[in-house]
Amino acid sequence: MSHIQVNAIEKSFADTKVLQGVQLDIRGGEFLTLVGPSGCGKSTLLRIIAGLERQTSGDVVIAGRNVNGVRASERDLAMVFQSYALYPHLTVRDNMMTPLRLRDLSKAQRTPLVGRYLPGSKKKLAGIRETVEETADILKIRELLARKPGQLSGGQRQRAALGRAMVRRPVAFLMDEPLSNLDAALRVHMRAELTDLHRRLQATFVYVTHDQAEALTMSSRVAVMMDGRILQLDTPMAVYADPVSRRVAEFIGSPKINILPGRLDSAGRVTVLGHSMARRITDAAAQSVSVGIRPEHLIDVPTDSDAAEYVGVVRRLEHLGSDLYIHASLSDGQEMLIIRSDPDAAARYSYGDPITIAQVKGAALIFDDKGDRLRTAPKKESAGDDALEVA
Amino acid sequence: MAPRSTGYWFTAPALTLMAIILLLPVLIAAGLSFTDYSLGNQSANWVGAENYEKIVSRSTYQKMFTASIIYVLVVVPVSVVLGLGAALLINSLSFGGDLYKTIFFLPVMAALLAMAIVWEFALHNSVGIVNEMFQAGCGTIIEWVFNWGWIPFVDGSQTWYGRNCASQEFPLWLRDRNYALATICFIGIWQAFGFNMVLYLAGLTSIPRELLQAAEMDGAKSAWERFRLVIWPMLGPTTVFVVTITSIRSFQVFDTIEALTQGGPSKSTYVMMYAIYEKAIQQNLMGIGAAITIVFLGFVLVITFMQRYLVERRVHYS
């Protein structure tokens, strides 16, 4: 358990700048997820931390030691690859023994054929075997130790790769999209297992993924990366509920946040499709803005309701069992809204039906024309806040 | 439901072609090997196993086996190791790899017969560049280095280079039975290793990069460790193929022998392929030629089965 500092890392491949001054402080023992769309540089950053790639400029400091000139094999980190990268010709046991063998046995003791008969080898090998078996017990793969990777399923390979990373008790675990080769059900299951494992090992995990569900469910903190920059680094809930920019808001959350065009006047009042919002923006000039509203903050209401705010036509119903997402086009334009509703609503709507929509008060996120978040003035405490009201 | 015979009808064209093109000639050769048939004769006499007895008993054929086996045992390991070494070195280059690839692959592309003429000139005992080079080195630092006299307990004047310099006589590479086979082996290696190198280069590119990175993360610091942990096992299938193909090609060596030594001197380079050619084509002794061919096929079969049963079991195919 150790903390990792990434200072002003830049990385260029030929003319393209992949990382543009990334600053990151990974606390010891935390589960930090780097999440972003493909090509945002998250894997490159992880590989720079690992030492598999050299940064163009900047420093990586692991446990207080600057490791810029230190090669990957000497950084004492473990990595789990997307393809697992298990040695296909070795059994799971040998795969897991490899890192320990390379660390604990001397060069002479590693010589093929004769090495194991040298003094000290036997005892060390026995120790290594024991460690491997203990680790295998934690991961529940003891009965797989004699098999080769080719004879394992995706999930079992995943575990074997984790085992190989764990045996050495490294300073930190680096994981490069380790779940993306698994099927959906197994992925959800492995999410829980990884969280468990993190709690049990109390080790530092740096996890790269493009899947926001993984980022939100497992991490202590999430770093949202785009275009080689970290846009926001915060707890999963903060990143979801309080995004710093429109791009973060759009990337995190599924289905995507609804974005409506709005207008901010000099009085700080935001108008969206003819409706003014209750909250004021105090410290920004008049400009056109985007208003983001999460699907769960939109509610379909009876046509004659006072709360009715937007009127639209149902275009698509997305039934997920526990939730129903209604895709509606607004009558006054091209705008589409996604509304989360309870499954019972499916009975009330079908394609082409009119729908009236209300918004949960105070939930809208407002972004300026550059996409940065505009903060609203602090709300007044009132009983009505929790209730459904006209925003 | 189609009748049971449909499947046979579908495979019939392939089976027929295979029988006519592959199996029939072998069977005819096998039949001829028990006769004294010559091309142009109306008939042939059944001589039983006489041809095979000759192969086993006559010293000519024993020399033939010796030459063939020595050639294979020298050329295969050396060209495979050199090919692997060259491939690893080229693979580690950041630039210039293509140039080396082209140069090393040239002997494979060039017609060996044409190259043999170049070698014949190069190895000529008086005007050849090889002996001229050795001669020019005599009395200079080159002699001092390569007569190994600088190694303790080695008498420089008694080593190969020292003695040859003293007598001012260098071997007739292709006309001396002590050197001829070694020279032919050298040319064989020169020709084969570029091919093996290309096969190994292809094998190297198919090694997943993540596997090498995993080895690095696991603490494999030296190139040797990465080689042992990842590269060599992953090249297993390539190695099996390279060894098999080089063995078979070495057994088939013919053009260098025909162009440079014609099996001589005193049958020291009388390899099987050349023997078949000499007996069956030049001397029109089809019977004995066919018998050698069958023995030759036997060798190739043995190599193939060795590949199948001894090696494949220990090689990992992903």
Descriptive key words:
heterodimer; A: 391 residues; alpha+beta; 6-stranded mixed β-sheet; 6-stranded antiparallel β-sheet; 8 helices; 31% strand; disordered C terminus; B: 318 residues; mainly alpha; MetI-like fold; 15 helices; flat
Can you describe this structure?
- The complex is a heterodimer of chains A (391) and B (318).
- Chain A has 391 residues and is α+β, with helices and mostly antiparallel strands.
- Helices cover 23% and strands 31% of the residues of chain A.
- In chain A, the strands form 4 sheets. Chain A has a 6-stranded mixed β-sheet, with helices on both faces. Chain A has a 6-stranded antiparallel β-sheet with strand order 13-12-11-14-20-21.
- In chain A, strand 20 and strand 21 (373-374) form a beta hairpin.
- The relative contact order of chain A is 0.11.
- Chain B has 318 residues and is mainly α.
- Chain B has a domain at 50-125 and 172-317: MetI-like fold.
- Chain B is 70% helix and 0% strand.
- Chain B has helices at residues 6-32, 50-57, 59-92, 97-109, 112-122, 129-137, 141-146, 160-167, 180-205, 209-217, 223-234, 236-251, 255-260, 272-282, 286-311.
- Chain B is flat and about 75 Å long.
- In chain B, 32% of the residues are buried.
- The model of chain B has no long low-confidence stretch (mean pLDDT 84).
- At the A-B interface, strand 6 and helix 2 of A face helix 10 and helix 11 of B.
